[in-house]
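Minutes, structural biology subgroup

Action item carried over from last meeting: produce the structure token record for Lysine transporter LysE (Methylopila turkensis). EB confirmed the sequence was re-checked against the source entry. Recorded below for completeness.
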Amino acid sequence: MALFANDAPTWIAIVTAYVAVMLTPGPNFLLVLDAACSGSQRVALSSALGVASGAATLALAAFLAGSALTPSEPLISFSRLAFGALVTALGFRTLTSAARPVTEQPVKAKRETAHFRIALATSIGNPITALFFLAAAATAAGTVTTLERVALGAAVFAMAAVWFAAVAVIGGAGMRALRRGTPSGVRIAQACRLAAGVALMSFGLHRFIAEAAALPF
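Output recorded by EB:
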């Protein structure tokens, strides 16, 4: 039997909706863009793969667990608070790193691995993506085979990897071209990182404050 043949319109709707979620600028996009602005394509691609791996993990968890995955409202609120705090911390880290002169940027071992882990944690902790896949799993409940669930996870990874790798490559190429140009190009590259840091902190603080204000105590 062909994959997704039982309810093809539902799967097409789920994949289309995920593409819209994926393309919407958010913390994952900003994280990869910040890595691209750092000037290292390997670091940027590591971040892209981390985001894609996190998205695929969420998709697999939601569809493999199916209806058994019914998180309570307090757990959802806590995850949103934690995500807001995480993104705020990442924004602050980006700001402090971008504020240093280029000649003082520290060179650390295993930077690619560190950026992969950060991107993976940010992607897995994204409540918007998590709730999307939970809703999608509920929509497709009863019509999904195990092979289809695994295939969906692989498709999510492939789509996210292609999109965020494109962001990493194109953004990184632009930043490297600026850095090789005039001193003003270096300042523009740093300004991009500062803007990414401000955007991350603003997004994280907004999510954290909004969720904290909604708590019952």
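Discussion: The radius of gyration is 19 Å.
Next step: EB to file the record with the rest of the batch.
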